[in-house]
Amino acid sequence: MNNNTFQSIDPDQDFDATDQADPADQKNDCLKKWMQLAKAQQITIAILNSELGLLSNNMESSTSNITSNFEELTEFATEQSEHLLEFLKTSNNFTKDNQEYNIEAIMDMINVAISRITQLVVRSSKDCLAVVYGFDSLVQKFSKIEALLFDINSINKQTNILALNAKIEAQRAGSHGAGFDVVANEVKQLSALVQNLSESISSQVTVVRNELKDSFEVLKRVAHIDLTENTKMKEKIDFLVSALVNNNEKLADRAVEASQMIAQTASDNLSQVVQDMQFQDHAKQQIENITHILETLDREYESLKAETVNSIQHTDGNLIANTEYLKTVLSNCSLGAMRNRMAKIIEENADAETEKAMAEFLNNDEQENPDNQQVDLF
Amino acid sequence: MSLNTTVKDNALEVKLSGRLGFEDHVEFKQVLDDFVSSQCHEIRFLLDDLAEVDSSGLGMFLLAKEAADDKGVSISLVHPKGQVKALFELSDFEDIFRIVA
């Protein structure tokens, strides 16, 4: 980098002063140099004003972008938390075939189904018991029939004995008892028939009793069902539903808290960012002030130049900037892009000769200090 | 299961304890028959000590309800607890009986 200062500038050849020069000419030359410096300063002021304007615009644009991005970030964070909250709120529901279902409602349906099944089982048990009671009644009646058969058998035995006694008496009576013997034989045969009939009835009663006993066992199995599992299942379902709903409510509550915290934090951060970004307003105002000061200075230069030109001899008033001053200004700028902008402004404000001198200077400087041409990146 | 009956204020009180199941149906039926032929205008089952009941036991209560309805008198289930109470709820007994908690 070139660290030249204005003190090192050689006087322009046209205005060389010598020891032998006239004091009035020396004064005139000195004034010319001041005028050249003033011109160079005016160009520099134009450069600085342009750079300050650019800086101010860049700062404003960047600040606006940062604020806008932060607002988007805040909105995004808030939306995210709202989506999460919505998800948690609806996690107890789901839809199938355009029908919305709720976990609690489904569990209620299951409980109702268990209750219905239990009721059916209980009513079936009741009906079975009613049949069992009917069987008990039948068994009692069969017992009465068996008691009656027992009585018939007793009577039959007595009848048989009576027939036997009659036969004995008939034989003892000889020919006079022959008819009676026939009757005794008939009674005995009748007794045998009754005996057979009684045994047949008793056998049938036994068969029916056994069949009733088998049916009774079947009814007992149907009627006797342990429903404890049903109550346990209902308790489990109630517990699970309660735990599930409770868990979801807790999650939703936490999501609400998190959502509120995110929204609050985002809002606070955004406020802080906006507040922090106010430095840009201050900086802009400061830059504007500096610009005004420089413009004022420029006007003063212009005014003083008009005044001074009249007092300088041998000049047409169209003073040009001393290129050495401008070279020094450019040499002290290390930013490539800024140097290019500065060169353009010099070109706009200088005459052809100065422009040519500056182009040569920049060309040489580019070769000697290639680092100055690099784009400045952050 | 053990079963004790007393008559109090013209009501038959049947105190049940232990486990009521199918094997108790004969004894239970006898109580119902006695009740039907009695002059009692109410039957109360005292269930404080009834620990467990199965579907037959619940069916017996329904038969008792039918018997009481046929006789035109009231029936109540008093102080069911634990598994018995849970099964009463599951079977919607509160819609059928007067249950005294």
Keywords:
heterodimer; A: 378 residues; mainly alpha; two-stranded antiparallel sheet; 80% helix; disordered N terminus; B: 101 residues; alpha/beta; 3 helices
Give the helix/strand layout:
The complex is a heterodimer of chains A (378) and B (101).
Chain A lengths: L22 H67 L3 E4 L2 E4 H70 L5 H46 L4 H49 L1 H32 L13 H9 L4 H14 L2 H17 L10
Helix pairs in contact in A: 1-4, 1-5, 1-6, 1-7, 2-3, 2-4, 6-8
Chain B lengths: L1 E7 L2 E10 L4 H12 L5 E12 L1 H17 L2 E5 L3 H9 L7 E3 L1
Parallel strand pairs in B: 2-3, 3-4, 4-5
Antiparallel strand pairs in B: 1-2
Helix content of chain B: 25-40%
Strand element count of chain B: 5
Helical/strand content category of chain A: mainly alpha
Determine the mean pLDDT of chain A: 80
Strand content of chain A: under 5%
Query: What helical percentage do the residues of chain A reach?
Result: over 70%
For the biggest sheet of chain A, the summary is: 2 strands, antiparallel
User: What's the Cα radius of gyration of chain B?
Assistant: 12 Å
Largest sheet of chain B: 5 strands, mixed
Provide a descriptive summary of the structure in words:
The complex is a heterodimer of chains A (378) and B (101). By secondary structure, chain A is mainly alpha-helical. In chain A, 80% of the residues lie in helices and 2% in strands. Chain A is rod-shaped, with a radius of gyration of 64 Å. Helix content of chain B is 38%, strand content 37%. Chain B is globular and about 35 Å long. The mean pLDDT of chain B is 94. Classes of the chains: A mainly alpha (378), B alpha/beta (101). Chains A and B meet through helix 2 and helix 4 of A and helix 1, helix 2 and helix 3 of B.
